[in-house]
Design brief:
alpha+beta, Immunoglobulin-like, TIM Barrel, 8-stranded parallel beta sheet, 13 helices, 20% helix, EC 3.2.1.177, hydrolase, Alpha-glucosidase, alpha-D-xyloside xylohydrolase, Glycosyl_Hydrolase_31
Length: 821
C-alpha cells in the first residue's frame, strides 16, 4: 500500500492545540489536541492527506477567531476547544439554508447512510451506519479512535500492524461537497485508498453451500452444472472441509485447518480437479480458537511460537502478535500451495483483542488481504465489513440472512447505499441462508437480483431442503434461475470493464440513483432502484407476483430521455426534467432492467466456466443516441495491472455508436495497449435491440486502411425487436464498421401483441379478456378509460355465465404496455 499521509504544509492552518487542513476545496481535516501533538501517520481508515494539489482558499484572522473560505465552504472557528458554538462550516450552493451549516457534533439528520457490519440473522431492514454523502451537503468521518499504521510492528513480510495513537485527539474529516456526490466519493477514495482491482473470476457465479460434501459428491455436482450449461467460476467450501469433530478435550471444531481426509482423501488432487473445471477455490475459516494440538500444522506452529509441541498447549489466536501472525500466515500459505486460491474469513466472534479498541475483524481483513498477494498472486479476501476503509480489502461477505421476501426486499437498498461509504463489492447469500420458507418465486427473484449484484454467490445452510441448485425448482422458477446464472457469466466483459472503472475512477458498479441525479427528489424515492454501471438501471422485483396478473411489479423512475427494456427492446419515453415514474410488471422469467438510449453492453458468448478474454463476443447496442464505450481487458497478471491506466497488461477496445444521425454506424476500433492480452481474432455478434428492421452494410478496415466487405449473417428477431449481425472471426487489430444507410430508428412498440400476452397469462374471466382485448385493438391507449366498465356484479341466475372481472393488477400491467411511449 502506498501512503502520502502528511498533509501538504501549504494547506495547513495551525494554532497551539488545533490544526485545520484544507485537503481540497471541499474536504477539511479538523484536529484538536490537548497535548498539542497531531497525527501524521496513516491510520486504519486514512491513507492519504496530500492529494498533490493546493486548493484555493483564504484565511482571515480576527480577535474572535479565524475564517477559512474556499469556493465550496466557509469555516468559522473561535480558536478554542471544539464546540457547537465555536466551530461551524457553511456549505455553499445548497438550496436549504436551515441544514447547510454544520456545527461541531451536529447529528447527521440528512445523511444518506452507508452500510453495516453484517446481515447475520437479519429478516429485513437493519440500521445502517453513516456514509459520507448527505442531502444537507455535509458529512463527517470521525477518525479520532483510528489506530495508526507504519509506526509500529510489522509481520515478517512487512505488513504494518495497527498501533494505538500516542496522544488522544479529535481528528475528523468534513466533506463539504453539497450534492456533488461523485466528487465527494472520489475525494473519499483518494483519502482512504482506491478500490483494488478484482480478479476476473470473482465477477462470475459462485457456488456455496453449508453441506458435508465428499470430494466425489462435489465433483459430480460440478459435472452436473456443466451438463446443464450453468457456468460457475468460484467454488466455496464451507467449514466441513476441515475436521469439525475433534476429541472433546480440544474444544469446539468450529475452528480448523486440517483437511478431513474421510471426505477429501487427496485434497491436492481434488483442488486440481476444480481448477481443471475452471473454478477458483476459497475455504471457510473461523480463526477464533487458534491452533490446537490435533491440527496438522500444530507442531510447526508450536515450534515457531516457542512452545514444546509435546505439551499440546493451544496456540491462542492473537492478531496483535507479529510472531503469531507470521506462523499463522505460513500455515495458510502451505494450504495455498495445495491449490487454495483465497480465504473466506468467517469472523463472527465479537470485537475484542488484547489491544483495547482494536477490532479483530479489521485486523484479519488487513492481514489476509495484504498477504494474499505473495508470490505474484492476485490479492483477494472474503470477509465481513469492518468500518470505513474496508473497501481496500474486498470482497465483502454480508452474512447469514433469513430466507424471506423481507430479506430480499432490503438487499437492493443495502447494496446500493453501501457505495456511500465506498464499500462496493458486497457478496450476499443469494437465495437467503437459513430458516424462512420454500417459495420458488422468491428464489427466482433473488437469483435475478444476484445477476445484477456486485458479486453473485449462491449459498444455503445445512438442510436437505434449501440447496440452491436450479434443478431443485420447477417450471418457470428453474428456467428463471438458470437464465440468471447464464446471463451473469455472459456479462463478464461488461462487469470487468466496470471493475476497472471502479478501480481507476472511484465509480462503483452499483450506485443509488441520486448519485447521478442529486437534485431530483424522485431519485431519493426509489430505494430499490440503482445504476448498474454506465449503461443500465435496475429495479428488482422484491415482492410476490400478483396472483391474478401472474406478474411481479416494481416502481421505476426513468430520468429524462429514452429507455429500453434490456431483454425485449420495448422503449419508454421520459419527457420533461422530472423524468417519469412508472409501475412495471414482469413475469417470473424477467426482471426490470433498462438500457439508456445508445447503450453499449459488451458480453461474451457461451464459454462454459472460462474467464479468458473471449474469442466470441456479443455486443448489445440500443438506438436513440450517440455513445462510446471502452472495454477493458488485461493479461490476468497482477504485477502487470498495478499502474492504473498505464498498466502494461491492459488492453482497450473502443466501440463507437453514432446512432442518432442520418447515417448511423457502429464501429469496433482496433484493440490497443497490450494486444497480446486478447485473442488475435474475434467473432462478433452485434445485437441492435429495440431497432426497426432495416438494411446494414458491414466492412472491416485493415491496418493499411483497406476496406473489405464482410459476409455477415443478418437476421431480425421480432420478439425482442433485435437486428442481429453475426460477423466471422476478424483480426482484433482491424476496424469493423456496421452502417445503416436507411437509418437506425427505434422500433414501434408492439402494443396489441404485448397487451394480448398480459391478458393471455392473467387469471380472470375469458369474457373480460375478450372485452379488454377488443377495446385495445380498436382504441389503443384510449382503452384504459374503458377498463372500469368491465366490472359487473354477478347475476343471481345460476345459468348466467356473463360475470366480468377486471383485476386491478391486470389493469395496471396493461396500463404499462399502453403508456410506454
Amino acid at each position: 500500500m502506498q501512503y502520502k499521509s502528511v498533509m501538504n504544509p501549504d494547506t495547513v492552518i495551525q494554532g497551539d492545540h488545533w490544526r485545520i487542513g484544507v485537503i481540497t476545496d471541499s474536504l477539511l481535516r479538523l484536529e484538536w489536541s490537548d497535548s498539542a501533538t497531531f497525527e501524521d501517520f496513516p491510520t486504519q481508515t486514512i491513507a492519504n492527506r496530500d492529494f498533490g494539489v493546493t486548493p484555493q482558499f483564504t484565511v482571515e484572522r480576527t480577535p474572535d477567531g479565524i475564517t477559512v473560505e474556499t469556493p465550496s465552504f466557509r469555516l468559522c472557528y473561535d480558536g478554542h476547544r471544539f464546540s457547537q458554538e465555536g466551530l461551524s462550516v457553511y456549505v455553499k450552493g445548497m438550496p436549504d439554508v436551515k441544514t447547510n451549516t454544520w456545527h461541531y457534533s451536529d447529528s447527521p439528520d440528512g445523511n444518506l447512510r452507508g452500510t453495516a457490519r453484517t446481515l447475520d440473522w437479519a429478516n429485513g431492514e437493519i440500521p445502517l451506519d453513516t456514509g459520507v454523502l448527505s442531502r444537507d451537503g455535509w458529512a463527517v468521518l470521525d477518525d479520532s479512535a483510528g489506530f495508526t499504521l507504519g509506526n509500529g510492528p510489522t509481520t515478517g513480510d512487512g505488513i504494518p500492524l495497527p498501533t494505538p495513537r500516542e496522544h488522544e485527539e479529535i481528528d475528523i474529516y468534513l466533506f463539504c461537497h453539497g450534492h456533488r456526490y461523485t466528487d465527494a466519493m472520489r475525494d473519499f477514495y483518494q483519502l482512504t485508498g482506491q478500490v483494488p482491482l478484482l480478479p476476473r473470476y470473482a465477477l462470475g457465479n459462485w457456488w456455496s453451500r453449508f453441506h458435508r460434501y465428499t470430494d466425489d459428491e462435489y465433483l459430480s455436482l460440478v459435472d452436473r452444472f456443466a451438463d446443464e450449461h450453468i457456468p460457475f467460476t468460484v467454488a466455496v467450501l464451507d467449514m466441513d472441509w476441515h475436521i469439525v469433530d475433534p476429541d472433546p478435550k480440544y474444544g469446539s471444531g468450529w475452528t480448523g485447518y486440517t483437511w478431513n481426509t474421510d471426505l477429501f482423501p487427496d485434497p491436492q488432487r481434488f483442488l486440481a480437479s476444480l481448477h481443471d473445471h475452471g473454478y477458483r477455490v476459497t475455504l471457510n475459516v473461523h480463526p477464533r480458537d487458534g491452533i490446537r494440538a490435533f491440527e496438522d500444522a500444530y507442531p510447526a506452529m508450536a515450534s515457531a511460537m516457542g512452545i514444546d509441541p509435546a505439551s499440546q498447549t493451544p496456540i491462542e489466536f492473537d492478531p496483535t502478535d507479529p510472531h503469531f501472525l507470521d506462523a499463522y500466515l505460513t500455515m495458510h500459505r502451505e494450504l495455498e500451495r495445495q491449490g487454495v486460491d483465497f480465504w473466506w474469513i468467517d469472523w463472527q466472534q465479537g470485537s475484542l483483542t488484547r489491544q483495547p479498541g482494536l477490532d479483530p475483524l479489521w485486523s484479519l481483513n488487513h492481514i489476509h488481504y495484504l498477504d494474499s498477494q505473495h508470490d505474484g498472486r492476485w490479492p483477494i479476501a472474503f470477509s465481513r465489513y469492518a468500518g470505513p476503509g474496508s473497501h481496500r480489502y474486498p470482497i465483502g461477505f454480508s452474512g447469514d440472512t433469513i430466507v424471506t421476501w423481507q430479506s430480499l426486499a432490503f438487499q437492493p437498498y443495502f447494496t446500493a447505499t453501501a457505495s456511500n461509504i465506498g464499500y462496493c463489492w458486497w457478496s450476499h447469500d443469494i437465495g437467503g441462508h437459513m430458516f424462512g420458507y420454500r417459495d420458488e418465486d422468491l428464489e427466482a427473484r433473488w437469483y435475478q437480483l444476484g445477476t445484477f449484484s456486485p458479486i453473485n454467490r449462491l449459498h444455503s445452510t445445512v438442510s436437505t431442503f434449501s440447496s440452491k441448485e436450479p434443478w431443485n425448482y420447477h417450471g418457470q422458477a428453474r428456467t428463471a434461475a438458470t437464465q440468471a446464472l447464464r446471463l451473469r457469466h455472459a456479462l463478464l466483459p461488461y462487469l470487468y470493464t466496470m471493475n476497472w472503472r471502479t478501480h481507476l475512477y472511484g465509480e462503483p458498479l452499483v450506485q443509488p440513483m441520486y448519485w447521478r441525479y442529486s437534485e431530483s427528489d424522485t431519485a431519493y424515492a426509489v430505494p430499490d432502484q440503482f445504476s448498474f454501471g454506465t449503461e443500465l438501471i435496475v429495479s428488482p422485483i422484491v415482492e410476490p407476483n400478483d396472483g391474478e396478473c401472474q406478474r411481479g411489479r416494481a416502481t421505476v423512475w426513468m430520468p429524462q430521455g429514452l429507455w429500453f427494456d434490456f431483454f425485449d427492446g420495448r422503449h419508454y419515453r421520459a419527457s420533461g426534467k422530472l423524468g417519469r415514474t412508472i409501475e412495471v410488471w414482469r413475469a417470473l422469467e424477467r426482471m426490470p432492467v433498462f438500457a439508456k438510449a445508445g447503450a453499449i453492453i459488451p458480453m461474451q458468448s457461451w464459454t462454459n466456466n472460462s474467464i479468458d478474454n473471449p474469442a466470441a463476443m456479443h455486443v448489445l447496442v440500443f438506438p436513440g443516441a450517440d455513445n462510446s464505450f471502452t472495454m477493458y481487458e488485461d493479461n490476468g497478471v497482477y504485477a502487470d495491472v498495478q499502474d492504473g491506466i498505464n498498466s502494461p497488461g491492459l488492453c482497450r477496445t473502443q466501440f463507437t455508436w453514432t446512432g442518432s444521425g442520418s447515417t448511423p454506424s457502429f464501429t469496433i476500433s482496433p484493440a490497443s495497449g497490450n494486444t497480446s492480452s486478447v485473442p488475435e481474432s474475434r467473432q462478433w455478434t452485434l445485437t441492435f435491440r429495440g431497432i426497426r428492421e432495416t438494411t446494414v452494410h458491414v466492412e472491416h478496415v485493415s491496418a493499411d486502411g483497406t476496406k473489405v466487405p464482410i459476409p455477415a449473417e443478418i437476421s431480425y428477431d421480432r420478439d425482442t425487436l433485435s437486428l442481429i449481425v453475426r460477423i466471422p472471426a476478424i483480426d482484433t487489430g482491424h476496424t469493423v464498421t456496421v452502417s445503416f444507410p436507411e437509418g437506425a430508428n427505434p422500433a414501434d412498440n408492439p402494443l396489441v401483441k404485448d397487451a394480448h400476452k398480459v391478458l393471455h397469462d392473467a387469471r380472470m374471466p375469458y369474457l373480460t379478456k375478450e372485452q379488454a382485448f377488443s377495446a385495445i385493438a380498436e382504441s389503443g391507449v384510449n382503452a384504459i378509460a374503458q377498463f372500469g366498465t368491465m366490472e359487473h356484479t354477478s347475476s343471481s341466475d345460476p345459468q348466467d355465465c356473463s360475470d366480468s372481472h377486471m383485476p386491478d393488477g391486470v389493469r395496471r400491467a396493461l396500463a404499462e404496455v399502453l403508456l410506454r411511449d
